[in-house]
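User: Round two. Same drill as before: sequence, then structure, for each protein.

Assistant: Same drill it is. First protein:
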Amino acid sequence: MDKETVATISYLSRLAFDKQNEEKITRDLENIIKFVDQLDSIDTSDIEPLKSPLEKTAKTREDKISAQNRKEQFLKNAPDANDDYFLVPRVVE
């Protein structure tokens, strides 16, 4: 990866890099490309391709209530409230 390639990538991605960081960015991009190249070495011959990522089913769990209803406690601490809601001054007429 050379400076011209880094300049092209930064232009296409609408990023501005300092000239001081150009060498570090070049090394980082090379490391990213090497990392992605590792994916080619993985044997995926036994894996069926997905037609959609939604084909997997979500894990389900039993729907249990785990929190206590503390509405009365919260409303008691409010400056102004009725039986069910906090009362606030009208902002929009």
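Second protein:
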Amino acid sequence: MSMMSRTYGHLSALALGALFALPALAAGDEEAVAAKLEEFRSAQVTANASALTALTVPELSYSHSDARVEDRATFVANTTSGKKPFLSLAYREPTIRVVGNNAIVRFHWLGEQQAVADGKKTATDLHILMVWQKQGGDWKLLARSATKL
């Protein structure tokens, strides 16, 4: 066997090994994003400002189904104001697709909140699109958009 054949043989084995490792790495990232998604949902329900801040990037673009767009500071302030606490919030049927250092997340949002001022309950039924970005080995929410169903 020539030196060239052995070199290419090793390279082929390395390339093949890397090819099989990619789905495993993506699966690990998908699991990590799923964990962050649940942390985010929990932080919304409990109005945990420090957790919401830690889970998002400073450049966050958070879009609501009524077309309001909030930056991170406004989103965190509004979510944790205590004016309309969550009675329930479920993220149903999430799908996560990792693309490089980004993850595209979609799910069905079912929530209910109750206004403190007048006791009025509001139900929300939405389709959500989130974009998470891997930064320094950690997943952070970069953007979110909502559409009424």
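Strands lie at 56-63, 69-70, 86-99, 102-114, 121-135, 138-148.

User: Perfect.
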